[in-house]
Design a protein that fits this description.
alpha/beta, 4-stranded mixed β-sheet, 2 domains, 9% strand, rod-shaped, Diaminopimelate Epimerase, Chain A, domain 1, 234 residues
Length: 234
């Protein structure tokens, strides 16, 4: 019975994990290792990146880290860019933005496919104008939205792509909230179903064991009665 209970609990855990895993985003847009970007901003960037990527093959990728260790921000960004293989996964015309919390600095790498059109000077101007003010104030989330929109507008001007750009994240905040509530309800239903199944199985086991015990007792009584009758007749 202990093995059965353990098996049911394992099934419950697997079901809950599968609900969560099934909702993982398929495409890489944000890698927020430092926790500098909100869920709604991640969802916004992911959604708009899908539009840009479908039309151009490009993505505006934002990554964050708490520290770069002994490397400079530019060195760390270049290493991360190479390690992630940005140039080798169909994103030769993408923009790679790196933000470091402890270093209070950032960097941008332009893929080779568009480096002639999107110059380093243009990228630097975007960083200074759209990222620096909010980043300096510690509002990394707003800085991420503004710099993403700045580069997204560049793709809009040069490609036939029309992402729905905004700085108002309330829509995506509500989407995240609704999804979390739905996920919680699904998980609750799974847990309740497993609990009912567990109770049902345990009840069946108890009933079967009691039935077998009664049958053994009845058999013993019959055997005793048979021996008693044999003794009387003998």
């Amino acid at each position: 019975m202990k093995k059965l209970i353990c098996m049911i609990l394992i099934i419950c855990s697997v079901c809950c994990i599968s609900v969560s895993a099934s909702e993982d985003e398929e495409f890489f847009s944000v890698m927020d290792n430092a926790g500098m970007i909100s869920d709604e901003t991640e969802r916004y960037i992911y959604t708009q990146n899908n539009i840009i990527s479908e039309d151009t093959g490009a993505r505006i990728i934002i990554t964050t880290e708490k520290t770069t260790g002994e490397l400079s921000v530019n060195e760390y960004a270049a290493k991360l860019y190479d390690d992630l293989g940005i140039e080798h996964i169909g994103r030769e015309n993408s923009v790679f933005i790196f933000m470091c919390e402890s270093g209070d600095d950032y960097s941008v790498i332009i893929s080779d496919g568009i480096s002639a059109a999107m110059t380093d000077k243009f990228a630097e101007q975007c960083l200074v104008k759209f990222m620096e003010p909010d980043f300096a104030d510690g509002d990394y989330d707003k800085a991420a939205v503004k710099i993403f929109n700045a580069f997204a507008r560049w793709y809009t001007d040069r490609y036939d792509t029309h992402p729905k750009l905004t700085e108002d994240m309330s829509k995506y905040r509500n989407i995240i909230k609704d999804e979390k509530e739905q996920k919680h309800r699904r998980t609750t239903l799974i847990v309740v179903a497993v609990i009912f199944a567990t109770v049902g199985v345990l009840s069946a086991i108890i009933y079967i064991r009691r039935k077998k015990r009664l049958m053994r007792l009845q058999k013993k009584r019959q055997e005793r009665r048979k021996r008693y009758m044999q003794i009387r007749q003998g």
